[in-house]
Amino acid sequence: MVKVKDISDYINSFAPYETRCDWDNCGLLVGDGEQTVNKVALCLDLTEETLDGAISSGADLVVTHHPVIFTPQKSFLRGDKAFELAARGISLISAHTCFDCAEGGVNDVLCNVLGISGAEAVASAELAVPMVRIGEVKEQSTLELAALVASRLGTKCRVVDCGNSVKRVAVCGGAGMDFYLDAVKAGADAYVTGEIKHHEMLFAKETGVTVIEAGHFETENPAMTALKNMLEKRFSQVEFVLVEQSAPVKFIG
């Protein structure tokens, strides 16, 4: 008999919650650690779409990447997604930045999807646990790399093209520009991440190391399949399902 705490403890074993960023919220966020689990729904975010999917699937537990609760709440009312889970006796675990930096986590999966070989963790000036990964691709132009990223992730890319050829590529899924200089110091020719602010693009152009923005959802969502596979291997008596989630951004024109 598998309990919620068993699954939470296992996730904590390879993506320790203590490695999360200071502002983050990871671990068992809703429910009962002693609850028996027969079915688990996985999704990047708990949205109305994935909440409905988890409920209709009959899941006892939901595992998300992004936390359903980021900051302390002053109310907990009907319509709140955490309330709706609790009212139905469904628990929720979130593994956010702890899974980003974990071995086999978001950024390792991103390297695999993009065909980056020999990927290594990049030491960070900001974090005790490395977030960024760096490795090599066949030497190509920035635009060729951007086209590959777009094709592999099923997205469209925005590029700050510094005009250099690219062989050594660093990645960080999601909003990863806090670690751009870590990638630069590690010798990256290009940095692939999920979202980039305007002033960060200007800074990259001045720094001279190409950046490719490929979408927050698109750079992180592939890792949910990897997480499902890890959990299935450990808990063979439990059913795991990926709940359908639409990308929040549509590209027009």
Topology record:
Layout (H helix, E strand, L loop, with lengths): L3 H11 L12 E4 L8 E5 L4 H10 L3 E4 L16 H7 L3 E4 L2 H4 L5 H9 L2 E5 L11 E8 L1 H12 L4 E3 L5 E7 L7 H6 L4 E4 L4 H10 L2 E4 L2 H5 L1 H13 L4 E4 L11
Parallel strand pairs: 2-3, 2-11, 3-4, 8-9, 9-10
Antiparallel strand pairs: 1-4, 5-6, 6-8, 7-10
Helix pairs in contact: 5-10
Can you give a write-up of this model?
The protein has 253 residues and is an alpha/beta fold. It has helices spanning 4-14, 48-57, 81-87, 97-100, 106-114, 142-153, 180-185, 198-207, 216-220, 222-234, and strands spanning 27-30, 39-43, 61-64, 91-94, 117-121, 133-140, 158-160, 166-172, 190-193, 210-213, 239-242. A 6-stranded mixed beta sheet has the order 5-6-8-9-10-7, sandwiched between helices. A 5-stranded mixed beta sheet has the order 1-4-3-2-11, with helices on both faces. α7 links the parallel β8 (166-172) and β9 (190-193). The N and C termini lie far apart (52 Å). The mean pLDDT is 96.
Concise structural overview:
Helices cover 34% and strands 21% of the residues. With 253 residues, the protein is of the alpha/beta class.
Main traits of this protein?
single chain, alpha/beta, 6-stranded mixed sheet, 5-stranded mixed sheet, 11 strands, 21% strand
Q: Got a strand count? A: 11
Structural class designation = alpha/beta
> SSE string, helix = H, strand = E?
HEEHEHEHHEEHEEHEHEHHE
Number of helices: 10
Which descriptor suits the 3D outline? elongated
Strand order of the largest sheet: 5-6-8-9-10-7
